[in-house]
Amino acid sequence: MSSIPYRGRFAPSPTGPLHLGSLLAAFGSWLLARHAGGEWRVRIEDVDPPREVAGAADAQLATLAAFGLHADGPIQYQSRRHRLYQAALDRLLAEGKAFACHCSRSDLAGQQGIHRHCAAHQLRPHPAVRLRVADGSRVMFQDGLQGSFTQQVDREVGDFVLLRADGCWAYQLAVVVDDAEQGITDVVRGLDLIDSTPRQILLQRALGVATPRYLHLPLLLDASGHKLSKSLAARPVDAADPLPTLRWLWSALGQADAALDAAGSVGELLQHAAAGFNPALLQKASFIVPESPPG
Ligand code: GLU
Q: Which position among 97, 227, 230, 284 bears the catalytic label?
């Protein structure tokens, strides 16, 4: 058991520069950690080489530093933690909670892509490994912002992948092993990941580790209602001029603009933000629609 009452984290995948949406998750998780008097960690989720962009992890860390968001404790890299994922997988396999699966996408097409039983037409040299999800696996959790969230994992998701057929660790396994091993008590991230949370809770139960508290922040939409990643505002944030962006994110998080008026530097702004942050002002709505991009 950790003696730290609150340990949050920001866990970007190095697939490109940080955009406003990811910085909102970083700043939001930092604010909630500071408000709780807790720690804030950073973990680079680089277990998916096909999606990785060379240099992106360093660029993301440089951007976080320019915005004054410094991790408490060393940065963790998932690419250096294979041993932990392998040990978890071996245990699940040995206990019959996971199984090798030779199904291809087309084998699963007849089941709407949801795996309930193997329908492989041919054996693969390197099968995927899936978690066995029992019939009737209904997971409910209380999100810190969105309220109660329920998913019928067997019917809506099915047996899910832990190790992909291409040999890469699945996000679900790596994130659960790491959150547990790093003693993360509070996961704060974007609402696009809320669908994954019931899978992560099932996996935590299968591994016998604690379930952290979860809070999913609203996603940013542009004025035309598109997800930010498809809009102009998905451009990388301007690390050379962090103050307007931090003020914009602060207001997107529902906080009172005036609290940051006096701040003339990043350090000052973050000090005021940590002191003035009020979680009760976070919008529960699914989306934040900013009036105009920062700058
Ligand atoms: N690495 C994931 C992403 O960038 C986030 C993981 C998480 O916060 O659980 O989308």
A: 230
Instruction: State residue 237's pLDDT score.
Output: 87
Query: What CATH homologous superfamily does 82-171 map to?
Result: Glutamyl-tRNA Synthetase; Domain 3 (3.90.800.10)
Any ligand 1 atom below 6 A from CB of 57: no
- CA 84, 86, 89, 90 torsion-angle sign: negative
What's the pLDDT tens digit per position in 258-289? Answer: 999 999 999 999 999 999 999 999 988 777 77
| Rounded Cα–Cα distance for residues 88 and 85 (Å) | 5
Query: What is the domain partition of the chain in residue ranges?
Result: 7-80+184-196+212-280, 82-171
Pocket test of ligand 1: the residue of 20, 171, 196 to mutate, having most ligand atoms within 8 Å of its CB, is 171
Quick one: fold of 7-80+184-196+212-280? Rossmann fold (3.40.50)
Ligand 1 pocket residue status of 192, Cβ below 6 Å: no
Dist CA 232 CA 129 (whole Å): 39
Give the separation between CA 243 and CA 264, rounded to whole angstroms: 8
pLDDT tens readout for residues 21-59: 899 999 999 999 999 999 999 999 999 999 999 999 999
Query: Looking at ligand 1, which residue's alpha carbon is closest to its atom 7?
Result: 11
Q: Give yes or no for a contact between 293 and 248, defined as CB atoms under 8 angstroms apart.
A: yes
Is the beta carbon of 52 within 6 A of some atom in ligand 1?
no
